[in-house]
Design a protein that fits this description.
NAD, 507 residues, UDP-N-acetylmuramoyl-L-alanine:D-glutamate ligase, alpha/beta, Nnr, 17 strands, NADP, Rossmann fold, 41% helix, binds potassium ion
């Protein structure tokens, strides 16, 4: 699914009005009805609804919702932010409709002294500003926002918490942004909702469809996407009945060192579960019996060194390589990694210590084979790319690096972002906080390697791998709880994650 900037959303909005066709006021009524229905399903007439309406269409939505809820028997009061300019267009029509209906108290806020007294059970509806916000809030609107944030009441934001920008909030003023309990956003998630630092403003959020024109959506270009299940399903190849294990490739995993053999075990198991035909796990000598015992399905390649990785095997049998979990950053390991960089001819995924070695030898980055996959967590990414002030800036760094180096960068987080060499960026929505646990990254490396080995194009392997990893984590959390989730659970539930994907369950 494409993600749009607030400016682009306004364009799709206009396209819908012209081409559906639908009048501006009817589109607002449709959006308002979605919000009204959502609220009515979760609250009762016992809660008074207190609306804060701004001068634009976000305010217009609030006015329309207040009228619709009043029709359903709710008590309501509207506080219109009044800069002394008359309302125009659809907000003006909605104000008139409210006056005619006569069921909702109508007030104006001209100075902060007009801010109302409220009861803690009142639900506050924030319709001050939405996607038309052009600069951080100051003056009267900012004072209203600070008052709202000081109250114990639940706040429901219409479309966007007022004061929050849809994309970049670098220069914004945090205390002048509404802290919503819930945000009901229209048609598309706004990009800034996908950044962890903005959760305090959005609270939980839900997308309410308002029937914007599919053609308008299709012809508006975007390089940002939210990964959806249907797209991922289409990227998983169907297995022929006549397949044999050679059909699904041969993965080489270089992972583990003394004290960190768990990384090798976790990544190996995940790689096998992701469907590789064959797996060879390359381990230091001391790791031989560990990996043979823990993962009998894997073949083993033994390093001449007792406790670390120093030399990779002949690469000719392998269809993909994964390197990094638990390998450490000793000098022999660094040398072997560099040599691998020069020799490898098949798709490769770099994780953990492999990334740490690369950040200490940044000149090697230029030698990364095209379409290599890098899977840093935020700390590893910082070491690779430098500091950033917020997520928006960080994803710009991520996109730039992916473009410059012609690699795929999987930046792990609550919404993992995947940057492609052509500038596209995918946000992944599967996964849960239980997955922020030891070894979770090793399982992701294993999954991506397993998919690469089966000849999925690297861009698909990255998107599918991240999606399945998160989905398996979600399914595991349902059985084991978010708190008790451990990395092996993710691998254990990978099969169920595959079954959830339509193409596979069709068998
Ligand atoms: N397609 C959809 O999703 C639909 C969305 N709807 C709703 O419409 C809003 C967007 O409405 P819009 O009128 O474009 O914008 P806002 O209501 O957010 O506010 C615009 C007015 O606010 C002024 N403004 C902007 N920034 C500030 C500020 N920092 N301080 C004070 N005033 C500000 C702006 O004036 P300018 O000075 O910038 O010119 C405007 O007067 C969307 O969020 C949805 O809620 C439709 O109802 C249905 C379709
Ligand atoms: K709002």
């Amino acid at each position: 699914m494409k993600l749009f900037s607030t400016k682009q959303i306004a364009e799709v909005d206009r396209f819908t009005i012209e081409n559906e066709p639908v009048t501006d006021i009817d589109l607002m009524e449709r959006a308002a009805m979605q919000i009204t229905t959502w609220i009515d399903q979760r609250f009762s007439e016992e809660n008074k609804m207190v609306f804060f309406a701004g001068p634009g269409n976000n305010g217009g939505d609030a006015l329309a919702v207040s009228r619709q809820l009043a029709e359903r028997g709710y008590r309501g009061a509207v506080y219109l932010l009044d800069f002394g300019k008359p309302l125009k267009g659809s907000p003006a029509i909605n104000w008139k409709r409210l006056e005619e209906q006569g069921k909702v108290e109508l007030h104006r806020i001209q100075s902060i002294d007009d801010f109302p007294e409220t009861n803690p059970s009142d639900i506050l509806i924030d319709g001050l500003f939405g996607s038309g916000l052009s600069r951080p809030l100051e003056g009267l609107p900012a004072s209203i926002v600070r008052k709202i944030n000081g109250l114990p009441n639940k706040v429901i934001a219409i479309d966007i918490p007022s004061g929050l920008m849809g994309e970049d909030n670098s220069g914004n003023i945090p205390e002048n942004i509404v802290n919503a309990y819930f945000t009901l956003t229209l048609q598309f998630p706004k990009i800034s909702f996908l950044f962890s630092e903005n959760e305090r403003y959005t609270g939980s959020w839900e997308v309410l469809p308002i029937g914007l024109h599919p053609e308008g959506i299709a012809q508006t270009p975007s390089k940002l996407f939210l990964v959806d299940k249907k797209e991922v399903t289409g990227m998983i190849p169907r297995r022929s009945r006549f397949a044999h294990k050679g059909t699904f490739g041969h993965a080489l995993l270089i992972a583990g060192s003394y004290g960190k053999m768990g990384a090798s075990v976790l990544a190996s198991k995940a790689c096998l579960r992701a469907g590789t035909g064959l797996l060879t796990s390359h381990v230091p000598r001391m790791g031989y019996s560990i990996i043979q015992t823990a993962v009998p399905e894997a073949m083993t390649s033994v390093d001449p060194h007792d406790s670390i990785f120093t030399e990779f095997p002949d690469l000719s049998p392998f269809t993909a390589v994964g390197i990094g979990p638990g390998i450490g950053v000793k000098s022999n390991t660094r040398k072997a990694l560099h040599e691998l960089l020069e020799k490898v001819q098949v798709p490769i995924v770099f994780d953990a210590d492999a990334l740490n070695i690369l950040s200490e030898n940044k000149e090697w980055l230029k030698q990364l084979p095209e379409n290599s996959i890098l899977t840093p967590h935020p700390g590893e990414f910082r070491r690779l790319a430098g500091e950033s002030v917020n997520t928006w800036e960080r994803i710009q760094q991520q996109r730039q690096m992916a473009r410059e180096l012609k690699v795929i960068i999987v930046l792990k987080g609550a919404f993992t972002t995947i940057a492609m060499p052509d500038g596209k960026l995918f946000f992944n929505a599967t996964g849960n906080p239980g997955m922020a646990t030891a070894g979770s990254g090793d399982t992701l490396t294993g999954i991506i390697l397993g998919l690469l080995a089966q000849s999925l194009p690297p861009q698909h392997a990255a998107v599918v791998g991240v999606f399945l990893h998160g989905l398996a984590g979600d399914l595991a959390a349902r059985k084991k709880s978010i708190n008790a989730l451990i990395a092996s659970d993710i691998t254990e539930f990978l099969g169920e994650a595959f079954l959830e994907m339509e193409s596979v369950s069709a068998f």
